[in-house]
Amino acid sequence: MTRHTRILMSVIYWAFIVYLFVPLVLMVVMGFKDSKFIGFPIRGWTIEWYTGVMQDAEVMGVFAYSMAIALASTLLSLVIGVWVACFLGPYKFRGKLIVFAVTCLPAVIPGIISAIALRIFARGIDIEPGMLAIILGHTVHNVPFVALVVMARLSTLPRSHIEAARDLGADAIVAFFRVTLPYLRPALIGAGIFCMLLSFDDFVRAYFLGGYDPTLPVLIFAKLRSGMSPEINAIATVVLVLTAVLGLWAERSMRRLNKGAS
CA angle, 158 as apex, 152 and 160 as ends, to 5°? Predict the structure, then answer.
């Protein structure tokens, strides 16, 4: 790689970093503006928007509601995704490619199409719009991501470990819980955090499948319809910080588990 090429690649990289982080920085900064309107110039600073968010019972209730949905859908996605990965991973059977394609289908369908289809299906099986419908919708959308991550990890599991457990008298279930599942722990942590973030951030499916209780993205959308304000920036900043902390914790946990396994 020539010197000019390296310089060009560096410029493109830092331009992308600026494009990615400058809007986030502006969003955080506007959350401290001592005014009800977003924009420049900033003549004063305040933290009342953040304290107001923490003291707002509606926002905190919606946050807890969204977190409960994210946790429930993530747990279901992990259980189903691991089962699908173990079914598709080591075994070869006729039609395996078709089953794999169907498994990945919810991840590639446009969100609006998926939301409409899930709404029709939920009403068809007499599930009213609300928390249960959102959890099921998010689970359907998240399972392919869990399956793909777990299958990638499962492909690196030495078969000798399973065979050794079977030789020592463990049946298939015991071998799974004592050998396979601990080996999959880094993948489960990564997939679980990813599913939680997907569920917590989802707007389209929550909007179509939700009832009278909105999730956090739906609440932010409702507030945006009445105009931008630093309160929305404060809510978004709090979510951004929590997301970053959760992602960093997941990354450190995965690295530590991978080092322990190696």
Answer: 155
